[in-house]
Design goal:
The protein folds into five domains: about 5-90, DNA Primase, Chain A; about 110-235, DNA primase DNAg catalytic core, N-terminal domain; about 250-375, 3-Layer(aba) Sandwich (Dna Topoisomerase Vi A Subunit, Chain: A, domain 2); about 380-430, Pheromone ER-1 (Up-down Bundle); about 445-580, DNAb Helicase, Chain A (Orthogonal Bundle). Helix content is about 45%, strand content about 10%. It is built from 24 helices and 16 strands. It has helices at about 5-15, 20-25, 70-80, 80-90, 110-130, 135-145, 150-155, 165-170, 175-185, 250-255, 270-275, 290-300, 315-325, 345-365, 370-380, 385-400, 405-420, 425-430, 450-460, 480-490, 500-505, 510-520, 530-555, 560-580; strands at about 30, 35-40, 50-55, 60, 65-70, 160, 190, 195-200, 205-210, 215-220, 230-235, 260-265, 280-285, 305-310, 335-340, 365-370.
Length: about 575
């Protein structure tokens, strides 16, 4: 992996970034008082509930709950991982991202970039072979026979891996270091005798690009179905992780930043054929079912995801695995649907036969998440019998417990009651004691004094400079006291905003709590914020003094030294004065 990005650089980047500019360059904002508003880019809505606060350098959607700073927005909107989002933000601001020199197996940025450069050279090699190899006409005829034009082939960077054993090796090798790199990136392979040769041979090559457009792997398709496996994908490498990448995602985003719907299909050719007919919202999982990473990425881009698979056993298995992976990720406003094509049909053949309109009409018939969920689980269950109803209940219950969306959980709960002929109240009685222990933080009516102080500090970091840090409060026996003091230290000496404060807690176990507090509706008038914080702070000090007094008072006589007795007297005097 590359060296880490220095935390100081990330903090400086957040301090320099203007979240209004970052968001407005991607989603048009309108002024609304001291803040800015827009319709949320992460879920469908007609009335704006997406707010950007320049003073806090923070965004929040009151509809779907997404929130964060400039880096978070780029991660969500562009579908990037954290390091790539930092790179993107820095690039927008004309800054170079430094990297700490790692230890052990860490690799510096130059080595990573060299890997990407080599993958791009391999792509160019395959494209050149498609034009100039003696077999090129055979390959071009095949692609034309599949309805593809030269323009779409060029757009997706499709090429040809020659049938010889060492075409790529000879073209890109040349020395032992380069051969080792080709081997590590699985562009060549090695047998038990140490003989090295091309990994892909006599195949149509589909370059797989990451979210930034860099080639990370390849998919190779045979020209003759009798040649071996129909598709051969790059194995996992230091650049390529098939559970994270989606074929066609980069090309899809290049065509449209705003997506009403994304279709997951099974093959590379499906994606390309659909694009050939003007359907640019399709992606393909790489030889695996849609993973949680895939689905999370797609739900950042669109409200509706349709899984469009073959109706055979493999397609239905892939669809169910996708549904299981989606359950914990579904948020209110997400729409997951399933379309199974007739035997012998796939999106490629369908769109060539019926065009984009025909494919769209099929998509309109996709089954809802709820219907597919219950139809699949009920397929081998006799719901006319009590045993069958009990079986369905047993199948559904653990799946419901993985869901975070209250809406979808209740929707499935109601459908389950209907299918087994029970009321929802009867189901609740049957399920008593089996529901997950989920803390509903949104319904929490009252924060503790420590949480109030933390929430005020997160939302108004300048408050940390108003009072001196009292390290003894770390000993206060209230949950969160140590976190509050750490937060106070963070805000005491530096001029920070909400975004900068939260960035300092990224990746810690307290990040989620502090992000929640950043959205807390404190109901305190802005003019009284400083007074509220000071009074809360004094309250915490008073509680610590009372705690310390009780600790000393309960000590055995033999442990009460002269200093402790004097402290006990002084504490009592302070507490009495505070109460008068």
């Amino acid at each position: 992996m590359a060296g880490l990005i220095p935390r100081d650089f990330i903090q400086d980047l957040i301090a320099r970034a203007d979240i209004v500019s970052v968001v407005d360059s991607r989603v048009r904002l309108k002024k609304a008082g001291k803040n800015y508003q827009a319709c949320c880019p992460f879920h469908g809505e007609k009335t704006p509930s997406f707010t950007v606060a320049p003073d806090k350098q923070f965004y929040h959607c009151f509809g779907c709950g997404v929130h964060g700073n400039a880096i978070d927005f780029i991660m969500e909107y562009e579908g990037l991982e954290f390091p790539d989002a930092v790179e993107a933000l820095a690039s927008d601001m004309g800054l170079e991202v430094p990297r700490e020199k790692g230890t052990g197996q860490s690799r510096d940025r130059a080595e990573i970039e060299d890997d990407f450069a080599l993958m791009e050279k391999a792509t160019q090699f395959f494209e050149q072979q498609l034009r100039k190899h003696p077999n090129s006409q055979r390959v071009i005829d095949y692609l034309r026979g599949r309805g593809l034009t030269g323009e779409i082939v060029k757009q997706f960077g499709i090429g040809y891996a020659p049938e010889g054993w060492d075409g790529l090796l000879k073209a890109l090798g040349g020395n032992s270091k380069r051969e080792s790199q080709l081997l590590a990136l699985k562009l060549i392979t090695e047998n038990d005798r140490g003989k090295r040769f091309d990994f892909f041979r006599d195949r149509i090559m589909f370059p797989i690009r990451d979210r930034r457009g860099r080639v990370v792997g390849f998919g190779g398709r045979v020209l003759d179905n009798e040649q071996g496996p129909k598709y051969l994908n790059s194995p996992e490498t230091r650049l390529f992780h098939k559970g994270r990448e989606l074929y066609g995602f980069y090309e899809m985003k290049q065509h449209s930043k705003q997506l009403e719907q994304v279709v997951i299909v099974e093959g590379y050719m499906d994606v390309v054929a659909l694009a050939q007919h003007g359907v640019y919202n399709a992606v393909a999982a790489l030889g695996t079912a849609a993973t949680p990473d895939h689905l999370q990425l797609l739900f950042r881009q669109t409200q509706q995801v349709v899984c469009c698979f073959d109706g055979d056993r493999a397609g239905r298995d892939a669809a169910w695995r996708a549904l299981e992976n989606a359950l914990p990720l579904l948020r209110d406003g997400h729409d997951l649907r399933f379309l199974f094509l007739p035997d012998g049909d796939d999106p490629d053949s369908l769109v060539r036969r019926e065009g984009a309109e025909g494919f769209a009409s099929k998509l309109a018939q996709a089954r809802s998440f709820k219907d597919y969920f219950f139809d699949h689980l009920s397929a081998d269950v006799d719901l006319s019998s009590d045993a069958g109803k009990a079986s369905l209940l047993a199948k559904v219950r653990p799946l419901l417990n993985t869901m975070q969306s209250d809406f979808y959980r209740e929707l499935l709960h109601e459908e389950l009651a209907k299918r087994i002929g029970r009321s929802t109240a009867q189901l609740e009685a049957l399920e008593k004691g089996t529901k997950p222990n989920r803390a509903n933080t949104d319904s929490r009516q009252k924060l503790s004094p420590v949480e109030r102080a933390m929430g005020l500090l997160v939302q108004y970091p300048h408050l940390g400079r108003l009072v001196k840090v009292n390290n003894t409060l770390e000993k206060l026996k209230m949950e969160g006291a140590k976190v509050f003091i750490a937060l106070h230290r963070q805000t005491h000496t530096a001029e920070l905003n909400t975004a900068s404060v939260l960035e300092g807690w990224r990746g810690t176990k307290y990040e989620a709590q502090l992000r929640e507090l950043a959205q807390w509706q404190h109901q305190v008038d802005e003019a009284n914020i400083e007074k509220e914080f000071k009074e809360t702070y004094v309250f915490l000090i008073d509680r610590y003094l009372e705690q310390r007094y009780e600790e000393l008072r309960l000590l055995p006589e033999e442990e009460l030294t002269r200093e402790r007795k004097l402290e006990l007297v002084q504490l009592l005097q302070v507490i009495k004065r505070a109460r008068t």
